Amino acid sequence: MNTTRTIVRLLGASALCIGFVTSALAADKVDDAALRTAAGDYFEVIPSAVPAVKGNAVTHEKVELGKMLFFEPRISSSALISCNTCHNLGMGGDDNLETSIGHGWQKGPRNSPTVFNAVFNIAQFWDGRAADLKAQAKGPVQAGVEMASTPDRVVTTLKSMPEYIEHFKKAFPGEADPVTFDNMAKAIEAFEATLITPSSRFDQFLEGNDVILSDQEKQGLALFMDSGCASCHNGVNVGGNGYYPFGVVEKPGSDILPANDKGRFAVTHTADDDYVFRAGPLRNIELTAPYFHTGKVWDLEQAVGIMATSQLGTELDEKSISAIAAFLRTLTGEEPRIVYPILPVSTHATPKPVAMTIKN
Ligand code: HEC
Ligand code: HEC
């Protein structure tokens, strides 16, 4: 069954046509200059240079170390799971699973977001519970369902390999004891700051290239702004910078929004934050299916239709949904070319892998 069609049928066929879009769709041709000016009020181009990170200078040495640690399975207790397991840098920076699978084959509660451009998000995780990438990186290492290790075990592991000690010394010069859990997180943060995807076709349009987008993609952009998507999904990451209830107008079904995950409520404990989540950053969205924090939706058109009904109370027709999805696919940027790091060999002092018993 074609789910998009079904949803469109359920919603009826009337398109929301207001403001800019009315003329854009009616004419089936968009005024490029006006569209670019309107878009400039909502969105920013991804910079081509690595952004600065607060309190953590992004040096070459730190980035190289952070890359090793990102690919390092021995910071998990099984010595099998690395950050790259769930944030595969060859697959859009996530795992393309409904929800992630970690230590002992356990299924985690949420879908893995991409690490690409994560440096631009207001805070990390679907509920924003980590202030920055440095704070974030300490979480999965210790999470029982992810890497199931401890800070002590990680430090012992890293100190057991002389090559790592050298790398930490170079990355954190002048520190008496550079191999720390905190510095592991800082190095990973510095590496992640380099995982940006500039030069998407959308960015090229913002920068003045009129012919880089098709008419349909331009109509999708116009609709994205005029129907209200851009009021939550804006800024450099086209999202990732604010928190909103999932289901502002109408709660999606419990398959997509189950009652047990109340999102930001668990962070702030205020009733206003019931089922509040960070507006998904939409950069590279075509690479990161399945969608939503539950990962229940595999089809981008279907995700767009759900957003229209749940967040805007709007019924979008099939043509509008296709146009918006086509626009969203222009947000795919140039992915970083990563040379796979060669990792130091274990020594007799390296903690042995903990056998994983299957827990599901
Ligand atoms: C077992 C799978 C798994 C592993 C291993 C893992 N992650 Fe994640 N990661 C996730 C999931 C799932 C989330 C979302 C969790 C949430 O929002 O509650 C996440 C969230 C993130 C985010 C937030 C992105 C955003 O947009 O909010 C970053 C950054 C990240 N992980 C980096 C890392 C790093 C660095 C490591 C290694 C130290 C790592 N992850 C290891 C599954 C994993
Ligand atoms: C009121 C704010 C708001 C509006 C308006 C809104 N969104 Fe969202 N959007 C969110 C939130 C919050 C999420 C995260 C939902 C969750 O918890 O999974 C999200 C998630 C998404 C996702 C999935 C992201 C991912 O990585 O899985 C897509 C795609 C999306 N929105 C597109 C749209 C489109 C297209 C529109 C307009 C039709 C729109 N949104 C309107 C707040 C909004």
UniProtKB/TrEMBL annotation:
Binds 2 heme groups per subunit. It is found in: Periplasm. Its cofactor is heme. Heme c 2 binds at residues 229, 232-233, 307. Its main location: periplasm. PROSITE patterns: CYTC (PS51007). One of its GO terms (cellular component) is periplasmic space. Keywords: Electron transport, Heme, Iron, Metal-binding, Oxidoreductase, Periplasm, Peroxidase, Signal, Transport. GO terms for molecular function: cytochrome-c peroxidase activity; electron transfer activity; heme binding; metal ion binding. The keyword Signal applies. Heme c 1 binds at residues 83, 86-87, 103. This is Cytochrome C peroxidase. It comes from Thalassospira mesophila.
